[in-house]
What does this fold into?
Amino acid sequence: MNFFISLLFTSLLHAETPFAGRILADDSTHGGNGKLEFLTNGNMMLIRQPGEGFKRASSLIDLTTESFTQIQHHNHSYTVVGKIEDWPKITERPDRPAPKAPKPPKVTVTEDQKEILGHKSTRITVEGLGETLEIWGATDLPAFHQWFAFCPEPFPAYRLQEQIGTLCRQQKIFPLLITLKEGGREKTIFEVTAITPAKPNDQANPALDARTYTLPKNHRLMRHPMQEMKRHGEEAQKLNLQKTQ
It folds into this structure.
């Protein structure tokens, strides 16, 4: 009896304690190009390419609000996107609604399970138009976001590879292995190669260092052109309203 109580307590403890540490992956999905490093303290996440790739771009996500910020290192700038799922709404105008999202793909959560790198994972299939994704995902890792080489465009994603982040967040999984099946061919497009939990209170670990999730001081805010258009439109509306009062 005591054994089962201890097991239940341990399970609840792990369920309530968010993962903090480092995840390495090989990525060739939308926006991906080689190696990726995910660093998280449980509340924030930084996604970057190790080594020289770090000079290219990083993605910073507040896991509590799902606010996404794209950091471009080549021109020392950053763009606050907000929640990825709401990003296309930035194109809305009084006389023009935001583009319609495509028909959701068919998602099937199977009963197949296996252990990958010490984490129990479940197989999920996603069927789109002429392509299928097979995703092995774990529920004890943080919410998954995709890395982007450049600021994502505020338009609906049509290809399955562009929807992986949203699909995984909807299923509350972090993908450990993703296979794309298309035109009779099959290839691995995402695979986690290492998962290293951070030791508590190890502030020397980049995953627990608050500076990891701080915007670089030499970077400036650069709004997306659609954000600028919306801002100018709102300012024009205010001026017109003032003139009529």
Summary: Confidence is low (pLDDT under 50) at residues 1-15. Residues 19-229 form a domain with the outer membrane lipoprotein receptor (LolB), chain A fold (CATH 2.50.20). The radius of gyration is 20 Å.
